[in-house]
Amino acid sequence: MSESANGDVIVFLNLRRTPLEQRATLTAAHRLGYGVALIADSPPADLPREIVRVVHKVDTFDDAAVDAAVKAIAADHTIAGIVTWSDPGVESVSRIAAERGLPAPSPAAAEVARNKYLMRRSLADRPDLIPAFAQVVTWDETVTAAARIGYPLVLKPVSGNGSKGIHTVRNDDELRSAYDQLSRYVRPDVDRVFTGHSGEIIIEEFLVGTEHSVEGWVHRGTVYIAGVTDKITTPDYHLETGHLFPSALAPDRLESVHDLTRAVVSAFGIDDCAFHLECMVHPEGGVKLVECAARGGGDFIISHLVGLATGEPFCENTIRVATGQEPVLGTKPALHAGLTRILGTQEGTLQAIDGLGEALTVAGVEHIAIERTPGNAVRVPPADFVSSGILSVIATGDSRAAVEASLEAAEKAITVRVCDAG
């Protein structure tokens, strides 16, 4: 019997940013027997017609427009569930699911998962699990909080995603610069992800250690962990440049990360969805929360890395949970999967990407996802936190060392040429 026996479509509220990630979510629905009803700000062209049954192009920040699209879909189809693959849609999904009796986090839990300040407040009785923090809007509030927390520290948007707007601050001069830049940046007219949180900034303790994310689901109150990803980020703006799955953390450190995950899920009230938790593990073993989203991770972690390593596609399990089913955990012998992301290092216009053919012949390389094409503008932080990403290489192997070697060989084969903006 098809897993879609109780309904014929699953509603997707927007898709991931790249075609490779988009196809992974769509084919996951298809393999489980569902059609997709897509509601999106900018639906991509050439969607697979046998999978995507209906498309509604609407402003997904407009609740009334989204509700009207859902109503139109429900008039012609049975809706089995609703899913979003990125942060801006989390609260809308929770609201719609609550109205229609579909599995999803509660609106209260979704609000917490979209607000880094509320995340930390939810764990106020567990100061061992969170950095010292404060929410600030004005410069005076920022100065007062910085004096209490002490340098180094981090300034970032309350509602940002995808490493947007993260600043490491080491002294008073850097604090002023970071605050001024964020005050100009954290506005809906700059990026609509800040809708409802204009000018809201969180200032917090700089955490020392290694960076990781936890990928999993919550189904009817039970936490299922697919695994932990080791992350590589830039030191200044914390842009993610690499992922390795599964983690190389020692068993006792992994258990601490799992304990943090269960505590966070409980404190936030997250249920009936995928989650993507980011944390820092101190060299001496303590672990603290960075943030936790009530949706799956991006940057090819859930679309490719987890499935390639475990044998059980993450996106399929996300759809299972969104339709009231228990996730299926991989039982095959584990492989390793990883990604390296090549960033532009100067502002200008992308002229060419050389060596792609050679990189694709490297043993273990599965995919190369192009994010910028020749003629595109390339900008770097703090002017822009997205357009410096040029491409990502995904590789698999029977060991972590094999994956790292494949990624290194592929990166060496590739040359990115950017014409100076001047």
Write up this protein.
This protein has an eight-stranded antiparallel beta sheet, with helices on both faces. It has a four-stranded parallel beta sheet with strand order 3-2-1-4, sandwiched between helices. Strands 5-8-6-7 form a four-stranded antiparallel beta sheet, with helices on both faces. The protein is of the alpha+beta class. Among the domains are: 9-113, 3-Layer(aba) Sandwich (Rossmann fold); 132-205, Dna Ligase, domain 1, CATH 3.30.1490.20; 335-422, Pyrimidine nucleoside phosphorylase-like, C-terminal domain (Aldehyde Oxidoreductase, domain 3, Alpha-Beta Complex), CATH 3.90.1170.30. The chain has helices at 19-31, 63-76, 90-100, 107-113, 116-122, 139-149, 172-185, 251-268, 301-310, 314-322, 356-360, 400-413; strands at residues 9-13, 35-40, 52-57, 79-84, 133-136, 153-157, 167-169, 201-205, 210-219, 222-233, 240-245, 273-281, 287-293, 336-343, 348-354, 365-370, 377-378, 389-397, 415-420. The longest helix has 18 residues, at 251-268. A hairpin with a 2-residue loop joins strand 9 and strand 10. Mean pLDDT is 93; it is low at 1-6.
The biggest beta sheet is recorded as: 8 strands, antiparallel
Report the CATH architecture of the domain at 9-113. 3-Layer(aba) Sandwich
As for the CATH topology of the domain at 9-113, it is Rossmann fold
Low-confidence stretches: 1-6
Oligomer: single chain
Strand content: 25-35%
| Overall spatial form | globular
Terminal CA distance:
62 Å
* CATH class term of the domain at 9-113: Alpha Beta
Which structural class best describes the helix and strand composition? alpha+beta
Give the number of DSSP strands: 19
What is the count of DSSP helices, taking H or I runs of 4+ residues?
12
Strand order of the largest sheet: 13-12-9-10-11-14-18-16
Task: Tell me, rounded to a whole number, the average pLDDT.
Answer: 93
Approximate helicity band:
25-40%
Radius of gyration: 21 Å
